[in-house]
């Protein structure tokens, strides 16, 4: 059986936790931060997790060897 190719865009955006849940960065943290409150910016630093079952499945397909 041939090797599967990893989707490189997904590999840069997602890491898998030990329990197999994809971890990601949160959006809205790159620019125009002056109008966002400090609390909001702090919350955006924390990792997000892909919790939807179908989305989790899609991410796992894109990262066959992760």
At CATH level 3, the topology is Factor Xa Inhibitor
Name the beta content range.
Answer: 5-15%
Tell me the series of helices and strands, N- to C-terminal.
Answer: HEEHEH
Main sheet?
Answer: 3 strands, antiparallel
The chain-level mean pLDDT equals: 96
Number of helices: 3
Distance between the termini: 18 Å
The name of the CATH architecture is Irregular
Q: So what's the oligomer here?
A: single chain
Stretches where pLDDT is under 50 for at least 5 consecutive residues are none
* Spatial extent as radius of gyration: 15 Å
Structure description:
The protein has helices at residues 8-13, 38-45, 53-62; strands at residues 15-16, 22-24, 48-49. Helix content is 36%, strand content 11%. The model has no long low-confidence stretch (mean pLDDT 96). The chain is an alpha+beta fold. It has one domain: Factor Xa Inhibitor. It is elongated. A hairpin with a 5-residue loop joins strand 1 (15-16) and strand 2. Strands 1-2-3 form a 3-stranded antiparallel β-sheet. It starts with 7 loop residues before the first helix and ends with a helix.
């Amino acid at each position: 059986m041939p090797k599967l190719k990893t989707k490189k865009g997904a590999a840069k955006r997602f890491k898998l936790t030990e329990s197999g849940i994809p971890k990601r960065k949160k959006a809205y943290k790159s620019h125009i931060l002056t109008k966002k409150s400090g609390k909001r910016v702090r919350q955006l630093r924390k990792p997000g997790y892909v919790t939807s079952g179908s989305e989790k499945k899609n991410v796992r397909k894109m990262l066959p060897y992760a």
